Amino acid sequence: MKLFDSHCHLDDKSYAKDLDAVLENAENNDVKNMMIVGVDIRTSLKAIRIAEAHTHIYTSVGIHPHDAKNWSASDIQTLVRMARENPCVKAWGETGLDFNRMFSPQKDQENCLMAQLEAAEKLDLPLIFHERDSNGRFFDILKAHGPKSRQGVIHCFSGTKEELIKYLDLGYHIGITGILTIESRGKELREMVSMIPENRILIETDAPYLTPAPEKNKYRRNEPAFVKSVLLRLARIKETDPDTLSDIIYTNTTRLYRIDDPAC
Question: What are the phi and psi torsion angles at 128 (to 5°)?
């Protein structure tokens, strides 16, 4: 079995003291590659530094909607330069809209998102999207701004069936987290995963958040090794062989992120 944690935050301070052990645990659980996702300039730079020290780790650069109130055109230019100068950067994001917590005003979120769509298009990078409670506004922006050829993944999908269909119609991949494994919270998601074509599914931890079951009962902090529990639960739901499914999803991830030789 080979696994690719398509979305994690190993730059988080919770890994400061034991990152090497976390990476070793991931390797021991068949996690061959990881994508560390940036949410601002600082985290994007830290992710790049980690990736430079480990050949099996890749990164993205971006500004999270929570931080959109502080964005500027110069920030985007800095991230563009970072992406151009560092071959480990394989995607743009995490960007999108979050109208649930509203840490940034709606207008700032929308302007920041559109600026990042333009930057990713110029760099020809796939996007990692965050969406929560945008009431259709996120979809409207994606549909109205940018080429139909745009590639991306809806990270930590937790929307409705109607939203899922719309994202699939736009050609996007769907990221599945440990929410799938949680009995009450993951019920609707488990009912929807059969709607996702196998060649559009990615698995992720969003570590250190969203620890899956059964690890949730033992560990407070999530880590890439636990993406295996997401894969195993997904295989059970789809009634398919885990090894076969892991190969398909691994191929999906390397194709989306355009990684020709994941071992390099």
Answer: -110, 115
Which CATH number characterizes residue 232's domain?
Answer: 3.20.20.140
Structural domain of 213: 3-256
Distance CA(151)–CA(50), nearest Å, equals: 25
The first and second tokens of residue 205, run together, are 């931890």
| Helix residue spans in 176-218 (DSSP H) | 187-192
Distance CA 142, CA 144 (A): 6
Q: Is residue 143 part of a domain?
A: yes
- What letter would DSSP give residue 71? -
pLDDT in tens, 204-263: 999 999 999 999 989 999 999 999 999 999 999 999 999 999 999 999 999 999 998 654
Structure-token match 């698995």, residue found: 203
Domains in the chain, number: 1
Q: Within a domain: residue 12?
A: yes
pTM check: above 0.90: yes
What residue spans of 65-128 are helical by DSSP H? 73-85, 106-123
pLDDT tens per residue, range 7-65: 999 999 999 999 999 999 999 999 999 999 999 999 999 999 999 999 999 999 999 99
3-state DSSP of 130-177? EEECCCCHHHHHHHHCCCCCCCEEECCCCCCHHHHHHHHHCCCEEEEC
Pairing of strands 3-8, 57-61: unpaired
262 found inside a domain = no
The reply to whether 264 falls in a domain is: no
